[in-house]
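Handout, section 4.2: multi-component inputs.
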Amino acid sequence: MKNNKWRTKPLSVAFAFAGLMALIVPQQVLAGIDTGDDSLEISGFVENATYIRNDVGLSKFRNTLQLEGTKLLGNLGAFSEVSINGTFRATYDGVYDLNSDEYGDGAGGAINLESTNGAPNSPHGLGLGSTDPASVFFGAPLPPNNALDFDVSANPNRGLIELGEHLHDADGGVTFGVPVRPCDKDSRGCKGDYISDTLNDLRYSDFNDRWDFIRELYVNATIDMDSGTTFNLSVGKKQEVWGRTDLFRVLDVLNPVDYSRNNIYDELEDIRIPLWMATAEWQFGANDLLDDMNLQFVWIFDKFRPSKLGQAGTPNQILDAGSLFRGLSNCWDNGCTVSNFAGGDTATNFGPGQLGIRNIEEPEWSLDNGQFGVKFEGVYSDIGFSLNAFYTRSQLPSLRGSGGPGGFATENPFDDTDNDVFPYLIAFDMHFPRVVLVGGSLDYYADPLKTAFRAEVAWTKGEEFANTLKPRLFSESEVVRWVLGADHNFFIRSINKNKAFLASFQTFGQHILDHDREDGPLGPVGMPDWEDNYISTLLIKGWWFQDRLSPQIISAYDWSAKAYVVSPSVDWLINDNWRLQVAANIKLGTGARKFSDCRTCNPFSPFTATPLHDNWDGVNADAGDIGLGGFEPLGRFQSGPIGMAQKEDEIQVTLRYRF
Amino acid sequence: MKNFTKSLLSAALLSVAASASAVTDADIDNSFKPYSKGFPTVNGVVAGLVINKDNVDQYASVLDDGLIKHIKDGWVDITVGEPMDFILNQGYIDATKSGAKRVKLGAKVGELEGYVAGRPFPIEPSLDDPRAGEKMAWNFQYGYNWGDGAAISPFYWKYRNMNTGQIERTIKFNFYFLNFAHRVNHEPMPEVTPNPSKLFRGIYLNVEEPFDVKNTQLLIHRYQDDLKRDNAWLYLGFQRRVRRLATGQVTDSFLGSDLMIEDFEGYNGRISDMNWTYKGSKTMLLPMYDAAKQKRTAEFNESDGYTYTTYHGKGGCFPNVSYSLRKVYIVESDPVDPNHPIGKRVHYMDAQTFTLPRTVTFDRQGKYWKSWMIGQAHPDSHLPANKGTGVSIDDAFGMMDVQSMHCTTGQFKGIVDPKQVKEKQFSVQYMRSFGK
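Output:
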């Protein structure tokens, strides 16, 4: 049993922390702290969120203190209604101490990589190419100049999981080891700022070098012009929200999102990553045509921040991407053993500098790297609308392969005298490409249907997608995303006389305009993402006892992935201060999906050539994907965030004290 | 033939009812100053009288059946106060004088022709007039309630268990009202321009406390065309997003209270949503009073020393205010929508102010459901800013759900001051910028 010293102490500390906060705030406080200053408002909450995941146990023991304050400064020069607004959050997640066997410095262990050729599974480091006599492949005939082996002492078989093991077996596909301990405990695969979280970074996720404990801190000021126009200027660290729909981020993309907090399931308010920005807004009010009209410019001058996808070894990783990236990064840095690689059936070692993620190209801070947005919004008759444009960067990483113009040279594992640019090689640099977004939104209430409708649409240019048909294994595509939503209130008087139920239905669609996929000899090749995909959500919510008891059920279905999640919950406002929420998060349908993994991309002809490749001459053939696949690494793009979390059913209990 | 004659007669009556009325200045004076010749008197009902379960039968003629039952059940005692004259703002009276003669009902309920400003129908209603109830409803709708614009800031709502008196929730609101049209006292008059959608009125509110609903905002646009459905938007602080509200659902419990949006101010909906029936006029006790003579509380520590109405009676649900004898028009409204949860409301309209200090609500089975009272304070003894405004100040409410034994009380700090209300507050974008 590891980390016994931490098993009780943080728990008691956390409860003591929460209890202390509750005690120091007088119970009779309505809400907010009486500062004795009418121009200063302070309020906040303490919260404990405890989640239990099947087969894992504790997956979250998050304790949060959040303070929100506004100081009204009144008039300042030409400005009126000047205010300073701040939101500060301190979080301690005890799961890294209380369940450190799963998440923390005791996580992971030794792994064995599959060979479907009849050989026993190979411990990490002892695949084909290993020079260790303990390898079952020791002595196998290999090219004399091969560089397949790696230094197991620098990359030992401990603190690892097999990529995707929580979701699927290797099942004839490729997997490899993923270091899962925090970066200060095991630095393998940690790289740049993107994969760098130490144990304390994970425990206290708000305290980092980007000062995320400042959720918001900005100055807001207004000028009421004689024309009736109101000019509003806001500068500081903040969230800026665009769009009209729930859950889906079609236009609500100004701030990146922290999926490591609770995958896709937390309120966006809690997981948007605030950025330093300035917004200038002219609120023109009504004119002869429009009931309301305003124009907003947004300049994000913060250093670019991608969305946080969750690091390997943490409970919440959207698409399990954090594990993939860290595993690939470790492969590049230290080498790795890949299951079922050679011949499509043999666990194979690869040395450092041969495959994986070489660099993470995080944009430096500069004015050129700023992001700019403009929004025109108005109300015409009964229709509210907006037109939006945003010059930004992809908040999700793009893995640009080494094998083509703009790529980079790597070592040939079968001939260490041959360092070259190899097309279709699974060696990558991570980039965050520039993206332009143009879109709009509208809402409308249809009285005959007693239903409010809302819609968002966005077209983007510059996004990059994995594509095994391209030598660098990615390609750019324009994308159209949209959401249609409808809210309808309905009464079931027999069970609730006073309060209507809310039914909120949404469908999200994504169309990849330059979608690229073909049928290869062994399976489909090209882009794993669906050309057209749809996710529908349905929320049914009711309220009883003066809205103090609110059960709801929210469900989402990914039509292409055939993955389904249902989350029933009950929210109980015990009084003005205490709130208890109990929820379940259950996934159904299809989980892991398979797609070409580029094992058969033949980057190192003749060593990897097969008769199925183009221009096979009996020895050499052209590089290119012929479609042998498995669950990893590209099946995740078909499974989507719901399917990839198929084994992450949870019971969630959240207790909050507000003051 | 008989049916044909009946139809003709009905059409003729409707035509008479809808035609512009021959309103005289005397009618208008009588409408606005019904007590010019003295306040009504009822034997024994004098200032200082306390009506309780022991003597309520004696004074039943000046009370509605719901209140009689409450008193008989020992839920509340009523104290009679001095009668007061609530003279509305002179601008509103002048607008009535200049425009009332041109006002007439349209063919459909909800249609009003020739109206500019002021009281549309400053006449004594007649039981013989089949559309008298509708006219009274218009008088309420276009009443001088909160003047051209006003704020209730803050506005405390308490959710109470009527059996135990336990206060379950306290919500701190700020409400704002702005008349875009039919303005009579503050520029621009008679209408804010531009007004492309021909709005009549905007209602905007935000929530300050408690934390779980902080920054919740509601915006309602009501149109001059009563047949056009209101538009409403809700801003949810925890989502930072404006949601278009399904305004057909104004009969939903608002934020868990015992009020529907439709209950605000006594009735907050379209004239065309209801069938209106005038049931007669009588002298009754209504919660209309001199605030300075009531028991008030400083529990919310207002920096200007303002105090709020206290509550008493069953569950602490009844405004602890005095009632005065008033001339009352009794008007019933029953919903056009067959799915409406309410069977009917009985409104006890104050004839001088056309406010709704007292409304009794019945469910669709005809059972007594809600007891609704809005205490009206005289502006001259309320906040200094309200003095001389000629607005009957909504000062306290108690909404009791007598079936579920639950109530919501409201303590107002109503300020009739145009500076407190900005046109920009009634825009969707304001909700977004306020909610940041």
